[in-house]
């Protein structure tokens, strides 16, 4: 009954969500969240199990010992008991019952149980240790890889959906590695052992009790696909919740400022309920495995005792053999049941590993190859040669941009919002590759040099300065990790950050929270100036970097900027045009093309777009 209720509730909700999704698609649909249906994939399993390879040496001997101990004890105990029944309790050959023999067998069985218990305890401990290491490796690999992925990758995906793959998807593989993998071997071996022994004891009875196995196999095979799909659906719902949570937490200030908490809660609640319904459905399907096994084992038990007692009556088997059969058949369902659980675990692992490997196979759009050479220390000449760039195919953000910048020059990029300023500096930093044309630094096409050697020579100060959790000192030192404390302080002094840092409770050792929420925008900006100065790059990019600094600080910083820019090629994007007056050249962009360029005075004389922008700013001052 419950299945129907949960399923119909979920369907009802899904329809409601789908209707809302049509009205507001961007909040629901993430491009990588479509249900991917692929057949059970051995290549993928092999790839996953390749993570066990480094531990092969530790794993193999322990595995062999454990398998032997566990399987042998499980297989020999019923045999011993059956022997005790037939030769010590109720001898079928007319001899007297032997109490001594009974004690010996009972003692041996007890000993075997103890050995089995010890082997199992060791197996669990050992596997959980190895399993944790494998998960650690997998997570490290994934993180290492996503760090190499380009801006295009992150443009397409919400941060939460990336997060969920590193956390949830990797976690869901834990069970597979800590319990599953090794159990499969033990269980398969035990099954084979039991079948052989049953056949050896009595072929007819063995066939009779195993008649139910093919029926069970067919039923469970049919269930497979549904279970796998259901678990994929759960992951998708979870990914959506996480993506939404991430967005909600980041946008909490805006939510509270607009008093939209209730609206947000309603939205979250809906997603949460859908997630729960999806989980209920999947786990319910999962649970159908056990009842199938139980019913089948009950039928098997009935056949055993019905046909077994008939065989005793006709003298084909002894009571001891029937007892051994009962024990073995009991032991037979146990591994099958576990294999069923294991199969579900594999299905979950399939869904998760599919998503993990999808990320791992994602190639960085901005890549280097074996021929990429180290960019030598540059002077700072920059050339854009007929550059076109499209974020989305067919919609160029910039078109046919060409300009030459000599080392040491300062260039301002000016233009209305969306005119392509940030795009140009993203191309110079090689966050993206041009769709057409080339970007050259000191005559080297930047696609042909190693990324690291390029980026270490470029310093970028963005408007939305990223402050990491850690001390103020750590944050400045992020520019150059081997800088001494004195160098950190000197950089801070040069950009007038030292004054406010000194006033903080612990000075340079003050801990700033993630994203520097306890610092003002202007203070964060000063920190990033110090960070850039410390890095001492040949090329410096300031993207709206002075926008959040008050006029008073700005005057101070203008001097600091002069020091910062001296001898470096620099690109400055500023809406506040007073800050770029002294630049060697001002490039005015309009809808992705260069409209005019020249010095401040030249452009003012020309009375074109730049003149219009300056006049407009004056008017509102
Ligand atoms: N990640 C992106 N994906 C798709 N389109 C983008 C992306 N980033 C920018 N664009 C588009 O490219 C064009 C140029 O954007 P760009 O950010 O370079 O403008 P900008 O001059 O720096 O604007 P602003 O002054 O507002 O920062 C715009 O039309 C913008 O919508």
TrEMBL record:
Record membrane topology: Multi-pass membrane protein
Residues annotated as signal peptide: none
Subcellular location(s) per record: Cell membrane
Domain ABC transmembrane type-1 residues, every copy: 62-346
Primary location class: membrane
UniProt entry tagged with the keyword Membrane: yes
Molecular function per GO: ATP binding
Listed InterPro entries: AAA+_ATPase, ABC1_TM_dom, ABC1_TM_sf, ABC_transporter-like_ATP-bd, P-loop_NTPase, Type_1_exporter
PROSITE patterns per record: ABC_TM1F, ABC_TRANSPORTER_2
UniProt keyword terms in alphabetical order: ATP-binding, Membrane, Nucleotide-binding, Transmembrane, Transmembrane helix
One Pfam short name: ABC_tran
SUPFAM superfamilies named among the record's database cross-references: ABC transporter transmembrane region (SSF90123), P-loop containing nucleoside triphosphate hydrolases (SSF52540)
Location of the ABC transporter domain: 382-616
Segments passing through the bilayer: 59-81, 101-119, 181-199, 205-223, 289-308, 314-333
Name this protein carries in UniProt: ABC transporter ATP-binding protein
Taxonomic path: Bacteria, Bacillati, Bacillota, Bacilli, Bacillales
């Amino acid at each position: 009954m419950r299945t129907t209720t949960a399923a119909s509730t979920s369907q009802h909700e899904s329809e409601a969500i789908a209707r809302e999704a049509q009205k507001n698609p961007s909040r629901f649909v993430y491009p990588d969240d479509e249900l991917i249906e692929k057949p059970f994939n051995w290549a993928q399993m092999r790839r996953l199990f390749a993570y066990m390879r480094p531990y092969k040496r530790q794993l193999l001997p322990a595995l062999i010992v454990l398998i032997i101990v566990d399987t042998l004890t499980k297989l020999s105990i019923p045999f011993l008991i059956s022997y005790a029944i037939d030769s010590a309790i109720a001898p079928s050959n007319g001899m007297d019952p032997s109490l001594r023999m009974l004690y010996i067998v009972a003692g041996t069985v007890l000993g075997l149980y103890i050995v089995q218990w010890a082997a199992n305890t060791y197996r669990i401990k050992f596997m959980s240790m190895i399993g944790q290491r494998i998960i650690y490796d997998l997570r490290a690999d994934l993180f290492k890889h996503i760090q190499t992925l380009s801006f295009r990758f992150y443009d397409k995906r919400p941060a939460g959906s990336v997060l969920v793959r590193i956390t949830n998807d990797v976690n869901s593989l834990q069970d597979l590695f800590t319990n599953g993998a090794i159990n499969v071997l033990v269980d398969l071996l035990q099954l084979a052992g039991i079948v052989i022994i049953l056949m050896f004891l009595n072929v007819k009875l063995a066939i009779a009790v195993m008649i139910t196995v093919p029926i069970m196999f067919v039923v469970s095979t049919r269930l497979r696909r549904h279970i796998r799909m259901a678990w994929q659906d759960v992951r998708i719902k979870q990914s959506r919740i996480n993506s939404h949570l991430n967005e909600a937490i980041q946008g909490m200030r805006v939510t509270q400022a607009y008093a939209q908490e209730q609206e947000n809660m309603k939205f979250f609640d809906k997603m949460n309920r859908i997630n729960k319904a999806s989980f209920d459905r999947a786990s319910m399907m999962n649970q159908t495995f056990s009842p199938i096994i139980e019913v089948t084992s009950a039928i098997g038990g009935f056949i055993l005792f019905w046909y077994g007692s008939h065989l005793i009556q006709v003298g084909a088997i002894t009571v001891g053999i029937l007892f051994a059969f009962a024990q073995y058949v009991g032991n037979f369902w146990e591994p099958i049941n576990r294999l069923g659980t294991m199969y579900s675990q594999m299905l979950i692992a399939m869904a998760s590993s599919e998503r993990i490997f999808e990320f791992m196979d994602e190639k960085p759009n901005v890549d280097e190859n074996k021929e990429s050479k180290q960019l030598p220390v540059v002077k700072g000449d920059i050339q854009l040669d007929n550059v076109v760039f499209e974020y989305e195919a067919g919609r160029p953000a910039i078109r046919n941009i060409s300009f030459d910048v000599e080392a040491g020059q300062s260039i301002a990029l000016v233009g209305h919002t969306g005119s392509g300023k940030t795009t140009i500096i993203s191309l110079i930093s090689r966050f993206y590759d041009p769709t057409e044309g080339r970007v050259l630094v000191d005559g080297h096409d930047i696609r042909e040099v190693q990324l690291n050697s390029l980026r270490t020579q470029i310093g970028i100060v963005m408007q939305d300065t990223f402050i990491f959790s850690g001390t103020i000192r750590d944050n400045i030192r992020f520019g150059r990790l081997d800088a001494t404390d004195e160098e950190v302080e000197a950089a801070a002094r040069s950009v007038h950050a030292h004054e406010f840092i000194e006033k903080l409770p612990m000075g340079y050792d003050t801990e700033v929270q993630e994203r520097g929420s306890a610092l003002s925008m202007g203070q964060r900006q000063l920190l990033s100036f110090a960070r850039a100065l410390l890095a001492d790059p040949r090329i410096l990019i300031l993207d709206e970097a002075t926008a959040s600094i008050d006029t008073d600080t700005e005057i101070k910083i203008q001097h600091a900027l002069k020091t910062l820019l001296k001898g470096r090629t620099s690109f400055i994007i500023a809406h506040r045009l007073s800050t770029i007056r002294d630049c060697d050249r001002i490039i005015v962009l309009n809808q992705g093309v260069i409209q005019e360029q020249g010095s401040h005075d030249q452009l003012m004389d020309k009375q074109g777009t730049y003149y219009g922008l300056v006049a407009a700013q004056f008017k509102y001052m």
